[in-house]
Amino acid sequence: MGDADAAAIRAERGDWMSEHLAMYLESGGTRGHILDLSSVGGREMTTHCLIRYQGRKSEKTYVKPLIYGNVGGEIVVVASKGGADTHPEWYLNISASKTVGVQIATQAFEATWREPEGTERHDIWEYMCHLYPPYIAYQRSTSRHIPLVVLKIARPIDVFTSAAD
């Protein structure tokens, strides 16, 4: 799958993703944390977090819902972009920052982040593919190495109230 294919999928699902973000934000996290993604090859009980980050060029604040896993008390998100040949903007933006905001259900935190390597990365990738099997096809469809981002909670913050908190 090239960038054009991934862009077409995102455009088709774009309203769904915007609706998901609005539902999560408007409910304060009481809705949107767990979604049924079985219709797209995922699991019925797929967990989602929100990440809040600043644009590295625009300096605007953005909020993005992402599937997450919990590995040893750390939050893991996958920079898959649906198997596109380029990294997602959120990944490029957080790469320029030391911290990121993360909200899980009704709790939000400032977190530091890192990318796992070697055996740790392999084990986490296997776990994330178990949580969301389409990641396997995403990796097969691109030559880029899909990044994993591990978030470590640093301190509590207020829950997100809008996409531009």
Q: Secondary-structure map with pairings?
A:
Elements: H1 3-26, E1 34-35, E2 46-54, E3 61-71, E4 74-78, H2 89-94, E5 99-104, E6 107-114, H3 118-131, H4 134-140, E7 148-157
Antiparallel strand pairs: 1-2, 2-3, 2-5, 3-4, 4-7, 5-6, 6-7
Explained architecture:
The chain has 165 residues and is of the alpha+beta class. It has 4 helices and 7 strands, in the order αββββαββααβ. A 6-stranded antiparallel barrel has the order 2-3-4-7-6-5. The protein is globular, with a radius of gyration of 15 Å.
Give a short synopsis of this structure:
The chain contains four helices and seven strands; from the N terminus they run H-E-E-E-E-H-E-E-H-H-E. The protein has helices at residues 3-26, 89-94, 118-131, 134-140, and strands spanning 34-35, 46-54, 61-71, 74-78, 99-104, 107-114, 148-157.
Head-to-tail CA distance between termini: 34 Å
Number of strands: 7
Taking the sheet with the most strands, its summary is: 6 strands, antiparallel, barrel
Structural class: alpha+beta
Task: List the main descriptive attributes of the protein structure presented here.
single chain, 165 residues, alpha+beta, six-stranded antiparallel barrel, 4 helices, globular
